[in-house]
TrEMBL record:
Residues 34-186 form the Protein SirB1 N-terminal domain. Pfam families: TPR_9, Transglut_core2. PANTHER family: F-BOX ONLY PROTEIN 21, SI:DKEY-261L7.2. This is SirB1 family protein. It comes from Vibrio tritonius. Belongs to the UPF0162 family. Gene3D superfamilies: Tetratricopeptide repeat domain.
Length: 271
């Protein structure tokens, strides 16, 4: 189990917290190898920027982004976006593919070591990396592609996500703390594992989430679904009933009442 508090996550690099999360979910996560690869890539980046002496800070960042996306070949996984490998840092480092939050965590890690002022932004549609330079307006990188995105593009993304009346607000672009980002990461990983029907690992995601928010009825509902897939029907019924009791007006509550009735009359497997 992951024995880390919110303060622990905030004290760590985001990528380090993600590795701890990955290991807690899948014991096969190669933390030592990943740390070695991070150190190797960092040394290469430091040497590259040292050789490019005389560049301004924005030019140094552009040189690093070229190294990261072009020479190292990191990219967003357009062919299998929801593959759980995209949320495990060791797999991202190995495959050079990821999703915005995992690629963004790598950018933040290298950026902090190389002296750039980068921040993680939990934008509603995806994770962003904010770039700050003195006396300049903030800029935003889409970690999936390495390209800068304008406010116009962010507004369009927001409308596509929340509807035509949505307006881009300052709150959408606030820096997110590491526990918040890790929570989003955990939800993404759980969703990917459920798609892949890897229910034992998905259950670990839910158990971890419930250590942070023990009474979350939606997380308990999801746990019930996982237990149902694992043929632990009695536990699934208990979780479904908890959700029905605490969220009676949710449309899912009526569906789950039917599910509870069906499970109650089916064979119960004791685990």
């Amino acid at each position: 189990m992951l024995n880390l508090s919110d303060d622990d996550f905030d004290a760590m690099e985001l990528v380090e917290g993600a590795l701890a999360l990955n290991k807690a979910i899948n014991s096969d996560t190669r933390v030592e190898w990943a740390n070695g690869e991070l150190a190797r890539l960092l040394a290469e980046a430091q040497q590259r920027l040292k050789d490019a002496d005389g560049l301004t800070d924005p030019q140094r960042l552009e040189a690093f982004l070229h190294l990261f996306y072009v020479e190292w070949g990191f990219e967003g996984d357009r062919d299998a976006y929801f593959d759980s490998n995209n949320a495990f840092i060791d797999k991202v480092l190995e495959r050079r593919k990821g999703v915005p939050v995992s690629l963004g965590a790598l950018l933040l890690y290298f950026g902090s070591k190389l002296g750039f002022t980068l921040k993680g932004i939990n934008f509603p549609t995806q994770f962003l990396v904010q770039v700050d330079w003195p006396d300049e307006a903030a800029k935003y990188i889409n970690p999936f592609s390495g390209e800068y995105v304008s406010h116009h593009t962010l507004q369009a993304w927001l409308i596509g996500h929340k509807g035509p009346l949505s307006k881009l607000k300052a709150e959408h672009l606030q820096e997110a703390d590491h526990p918040t980002i890790i929570g989003r990461w955990l939800a993404l990983l759980k969703s990917a594992l459920l798609r892949e029907e890897r229910y034992t690992l998905a259950l670990r995601c839910t158990d971890l989430a419930l250590t942070f928010v023990p009474d979350d009825p939606y997380e308990i509902r999801d746990r019930g679904f996982i237990y149902q897939q694992l043929d632990c029907h009695q536990v699934a019924i208990s979780d479904y009933q908890y959700f029905i009791e605490h969220c009676p007006d949710d449309p899912a509550a009526e569906l789950l009442k039917t599910q509870v009735s069906a499970l109650s009359h089916s064979h119960v497997t004791v685990h």
